[in-house]
Automatic annotation (TrEMBL):
GO molecular function terms attached to this record: acid-thiol ligase activity
Record's protein name: Long-chain-fatty-acid--CoA ligase
Annotated keywords: Ligase
Residues in AMP-binding enzyme C-terminal domain copies: 480-555
Listed InterPro entries: AMP-bd_C, AMP-bd_C_sf, AMP-binding_CS, AMP-dep_synth/lig_dom, ANL_N_sf, ATP-dep_AMP-bd_enzyme
Extent of Basic and acidic residues compositional bias: 394-411
Disordered: region residues: 1-25, 373-411
Domain AMP-dependent synthetase/ligase span(s) in chain numbering: 33-425
Organism listed in the record: Cellulomonas aerilata
Length: 570
């Protein structure tokens, strides 16, 4: 594909979508200030019926910023957020940014060892943590720079009636309580988020706002090596990706209701359900986790107009809605990401809603969206779509990324645009491996092999990197392998992803038994893995091989292993 300003994909854009967007001149926080000024009484956040208007949200952010400032958080400091989706997550996110500090998002279900690496690497000084994740953070804390841990009671964000119902001496109330709350050690010096905010005054009006070039976010990603690295995203990266998104969708300010069932700690959910949603002054209906019944109940109470998600979410909602008597026809647009969108899923969703479901593509390193299918009859399910406004792409020889391949040939996808990150946190060598200067532009090597079809549509055909995408989450084989090799019954292991139904891919461990071991059960492997790995990374299938296929230099050939697993059909 040519990489000059001809941009042959522009004629395939939906009507009204511009070729370029204006570079941002304001930080991400300006979107919240503008929404509060222009739409003060509009509901900003709805959590199971507990509503917060934009005016209220802005006030709460100022108080939270003052509280964090009182804990010593200053410009450039990193603040870890270890939270599920909730109103407090929204408040904490914008409060950290308001101070010119840096948000570091973490999965609240991570183990202590996973959190330890990221907390140590980022140098976070304060962590705002869901009660249930506090023990893991405290276990990791001695090997980090954390000065202060603040516990968040998730139930405090609920409507009063639901909070009162949790106190009832019945099994259902206990289950809800156990799911939302957790014990916090009384002698660990952990502070309480609710008390801090109650005691805080507003941040002084003259407190400086962040600059557009200030770092806003460290988002950890495994990249191609499996070692989690912090992608450095500045205010300008997040702001321009939100602007590109609005140019793509055509959403008008103050008109949309966005369902936030994607986690905020994931780059996809953070952009579309948080920074983008606030840019367009949308009402964000928040779900701590995806639950079909909860989403359909919310649809009856506050109908969605825009739903970002992953294919399994759309499949399950489309299948359940008719039987539940739920009307989804208010949903005009939906964007799928994180894994390939099956054509059948798109067809089923559009039949139930009457709206459009299109695929988007990106990486944490692109803030995260770089391509999307047009929201028009020209959409093409099964493709990654077209480059976003102000975005260029090239398809190059994987062995020589300075050389473009011919039309219709497979090659590595390279992306250039204002949403492309500046590099990894304190990892210049890793940065140099993925960012390439060529023809006056900075290009990101995605590691994905694509082919460009007529109309400029990009189709994914393979991966150079061997990341497993399961349920929308990235699993890095080397991390799983490193832990499994420590299991006494296992001499060697290769972890691969194979087609896994609505998961996208499932994690499979191909093992070579240790000398003297006669067998090992999947349940034992999963129990061993659960000591250090997130639940979604646990192997779902186990295959025993006499030996692992290797290259001439001794590298395990994961692609060969993957094909062997598929051929066995177990």
């Amino acid at each position: 594909m040519q990489h000059d300003d001809a941009r042959p994909w522009l004629p395939s854009y939906a009507p009204g979508v511009p070729a370029d967007v204006e570079p941002p001149t304001e930080p991400v926080t300006a979107s919240l200030a503008r929404a509060a000024a222009q739409h003060p009484s509009r509901v900003a956040v709805d959590l199971f019926g507990a509503v917060t208007t934009y005016a209220d949200l802005a006030r709460r952010v100022e108080r939270a910023a003052a509280a964090l400032h009182g804990l010593g958080v200053r410009h450039g400091d990193r603040v870890a957020l270890v939270l599920p989706n909730c109103t407090s997550h929204v408040v904490a996110f914008y409060a950290v940014l308001r101070l010119g500090a840096v948000v570091v998002e973490h999965n609240p279900t991570y183990t202590a060892s996973e959190l330890e690496h990221q907390l140590h690497d980022s140098g976070a000084v304060v962590a705002v943590v869901w009660e249930k994740a506090v023990p893991a953070v405290l276990t990791a804390r001695p090997r980090t720079a954390l000065r202060t841990v603040v516990a968040v009671d998730l139930s405090a964000d609920l409507p009063l009636a639901k909070r009162l119902a949790m106190r009832l001496p019945v099994a259902a109330a206990r289950r809800t309580r156990d799911a939302m709350r957790g014990p916090v050690p009384p002698d660990a010096g952990v502070l309480r988020w609710g008390r801090l905010l109650a005691a805080a005054g507003p941040l002084p009006a003259g407190h400086p706002s962040p600059g557009v070039d200030d770092v806003a976010l460290l988002q950890y990603t495994g990249g191609t090596t499996g070692t989690p690295k912090g992608a450095v995203l500045r205010h300008r990266h997040l702001a321009v990706n939100a602007a590109q998104g609005q140019a793509w969708t055509g959403h008008a300010d103050g008109t949309e209701t966005v369902y936030a069932a994607l986690p905020f700690f994931h780059a996809f959910g953070l952009m579309l359900c948080l920074t983008y949603a606030v840019r367009i002054a949308a009402t964000v209906v928040v779900f701590p986790r995806f639950d079909v019944d909860a989403v359909l109940a919310a649809q009856r109470r506050r109908p969605a107009t825009f739903v970002p998600g992953v294919p399994p979410m759309f499949e399950r909602l489309a299948a359940a809605a008719p039987g539940a008597g739920a009307d989804l026809t208010s949903i005009r647009t939906a964007i799928s990401g994180a894994m390939a969108l099956p054509v059948e899923t798109a067809r089923a969703w559009e039949e139930v809603t009457g709206g459009l479901l299109v695929e988007g593509y990106g990486m944490t390193e692109t803030s995260p969206v770089a391509l999307g299918s047009p929201l028009s009859p020209a959409r093409r399910p099964g493709t990654l779509g077209l480059p976003f406004p102000s975005t260029r792409v090239r398809v190059t020889d994987p062995e020589d990324p300075t050389r473009d391949v011919g039309p219709g040939e497979r090659g590595e996808l390279l992306v250039s645009g204002p949403q492309v990150f500046d590099g990894y946190w304190q990892r210049p060598e890793d940065t140099a491996a993925v960012l390439l200067e060529h023809d006056g532009r900075t290009w990101l090597r995605t590691g994905d092999v694509v082919v460009v079809e007529d109309g400029g549509f990009v189709r994914l055909v393979d991966r150079l990197k061997e990341v497993i995408i399961t349920g929308g989450f990235n699993v890095y084989p080397s991390q799983v392998e490193d832990h499994l090799r420590l299991m006494p019954e296992i001499a060697d292991v290769a972890v691969v992803g194979v087609p896994g139904g609505d998961l996208g891919e499932k994690v499979v461990a191909a093992i070579v038994l240790a000398e003297g071991a006669t067998r090992v059960e999947l349940a034992a492997v999963r129990a061993w893995s659960a000591q250090r790995l997130a639940r979604y990374a646990l192997p779902r299938q186990l295959v025993v091989l006499p030996e692992l296929p290797r290259s001439q230099i001794g590298k395990v050939l994961r692609r060969v292993v993957r094909q062997q697993v598929i051929d066995r059909g177990e």
